[in-house]
Model the fold of this input.
Amino acid sequence: MKAIVYEKYGPPDVLQFKEVKKPNPKADEVLVKVQAASVNPGDWHALRGTPFLQRLETGLLKPKDKILGADVAGMVEAVGSNVKGFQPGDEVYGDLYWCGFGAFAEYVTIPEKSVAQKPANLTFEQAAAVPQAAFTALHAIRDAGQVKTGQKVLINGASGGVGTFAVQIAKAYGAEVTGVCSTRNLDLVRSIGSDQVIDYTQEDFTQNGQQYDVIIDMVANYSLSVLKRSLKPNGICVVVGFSSLLHMIKVNIQGPRISKSGSQTLGMLNPKEDESDLAVLKELLESGNVVPVIDRQYSLSEVPEAIRYLEEGHARAKVVIIV
Ligand SMILES: NC(=O)c1ccc[n+]([C@@H]2O[C@H](COP(=O)([O-])OP(=O)(O)OC[C@H]3O[C@@H](n4cnc5c(N)ncnc54)[C@H](OP(=O)(O)O)[C@@H]3O)[C@@H](O)[C@H]2O)c1
Done:
């Protein structure tokens, strides 16, 4: 089969489009013929092996897993002997982040628990845009942010892959949403349901005197002591974005300290795999409450360009790979 392969850490130039062995499903796995995948910041971090600490998981000197791509949508081609929930021909989508990536290829094997029936109303391209970004948004809004009906929620970075899902999921949970984005993305962020929009090129939301019940920060461009000012007394601030190792360390040290000393809760999102979330997302997607937004589409051989584009940090929602 054809795949995008990397043998060493580095920029997108180290990616090779080449022929590799088609995988066979183990007893608890399904073999999926990939129709579409999507690109996440996690792909370029794994590609470059940065921050260095993550190499403890991905391989110290060279990558353990040779094919990137966490988000996948496709057709089940074969199933392992213990698989009960799927059969050949099923249209599925899944998240490979927790099980070794591999979506930038014509075929991939996935543990049965990491895959679900594709939402009926979505194309493969739309379904592939969902898993990682929408899981992250769901965990930030529902679990870490504990968003409730009527609460005021601010999404910093509302036009990105995670942000476009976060705006829609917060609305689905009944929040009044303010999205922070640049001038060119104001209409996009309004169109996905944001009640208010703040253009970060014109206004600094931490300086305007407004306070929120929940802040979800995808950009990681403010310290916690600055974000704290924009939080209501019992507010929750969830930092999702990664901007530098130093910022992440500060958030992990200051978050628990500030949270312990007062009534506000601030900290970094620490999502865990929860298979039942694929079903939760399926419901949100099939009800039309959440609609994936796709910026650009690339072919499998163009994965290096797709990653380069995402790495620039200005994607408008999701970047999809058509296989
Ligand atoms: N995608 C995932 O699955 C995932 C999972 C866990 C964690 N994360 C982390 O979460 C962060 C966001 O991920 P993502 O996938 O949403 O990234 P992304 O799609 O690459 O985010 C790009 C978006 O951020 C906006 N942006 C850039 N600077 C901004 C600023 N100062 N204020 C407001 N918006 C700004 C850009 O809009 P403009 O170009 O108009 O500025 C663009 O639309 C990343 O740090 C990532 O590592 C992502």
